[in-house]
Design a protein that fits this description.
Helix content: 40-55%
Order of helices and strands: EEHHEEHHHHHHEEHEEH
Number of strands: 8
Largest sheet: 4 strands, antiparallel
Shape: rod-shaped
Strand order of the largest sheet: 1-2-4-3
Distance between the termini: 27 Å
Radius of gyration: 31 Å
Number of helices: 10
């Protein structure tokens, strides 16, 4: 993994934590404001705490600085948690890239973490809890978004009877033509040469996702004609709905 932003360890609040230079993050994010204005505004806006989320120090004196010349603005070291949040609030591609970079760095670092030692390190424990909290929130949002659709599919799967392709398309909220194309492409139905109707493959019938409805109709000459129609079972509707949702994600 390429080093997009340098990460090191530093002592904050009597604990060793992973940090990155705020100036390097500012440069990577390509922020329009000058560094000093940007970092001070973000600290005030999001209530970051010095000595907990970041530390400030004077840059080393060089050249005429030692003789009272112009000095650079103060330097800041940010915890990875603060750096992730600053990356996220930029709401641009660079911010997204930086946040993913920090997450990957944390993931790699955790593979070497001794869980017993973390229990005695309040800062490290806080970092782990924040990371897991982010994952839980993300999963909860995904579940909440999918819950109505999942509930509908469960109700359909538990229902009795079967649907023709037109009614099935209506239940799945897709066009009948698109559903038929999907069924053909995924090996659910086929056409027998010389016949206009659609038939279900035997393995799909055995799986319980398709069935045939056989109807006897009377011809004008009085003879009987057997009409076979491929239909989708509730279990099949649920499976197709899940596949369509997965493809759209």
């Amino acid at each position: 993994m390429n080093e997009l932003i340098p990460i090191s360890e530093h002592s904050i609040n009597a604990a060793r934590v992973r940090v990155c230079p705020a100036r390097a993050l500012h440069k990577f994010l390509q922020v329009g404001k000058d560094f000093s204005t940007w970092v001070k505004a973000r600290i005030e806006q999001y209530d970051f705490v010095e000595g907990q989320d970041y530390v400030v120090f004077d840059p080393p004196k060089k050249g005429n600085q030692a003789r009272g010349g112009d000095r650079r603005s103060k330097e800041y070291l940010l915890t990875i948690e603060m750096a992730k949040e600053l990356s996220m609030v930029e709401r641009n591609e660079k911010g997204k890239q930086a946040r993913q970079y920090f997450l990957e760095c944390e993931r790699r670092a955790k593979t070497a973490i001794d869980p017993i030692s973390v229990l005695g390190d309040a800062t490290a424990m806080r970092s782990l809890l924040l990371t897991y909290t982010e994952k839980v929130i993300s999963l909860e949002q995904t579940v909440a978004e999918q819950a109505p659709q999942v509930a509908t599919l469960h109700r359909i799967a538990a229902a009795d009877g079967s649907l023709c392709m037109r009614d099935a398309a209506k239940a799945l909220q897709v066009r009948p033509l698109d559903l038929r194309r999907w069924l053909v492409a995924h090996g659910w139905i086929y056409q027998r040469p010389g016949h206009n109707g659609w038939l279900a493959y035997q393995d799909r019938i055995q799986q319980g996702v398709m069935c045939h409805k056989v109807t006897t109709v009377q011809r004008e000459d009085g003879s009987d004609k057997i009409v076979e129609q491929a239909r989708i079972t509730p279990k099949g509707i649920a499976r197709i709905g899940a596949e369509l949702a997965k493809a759209a994600a």
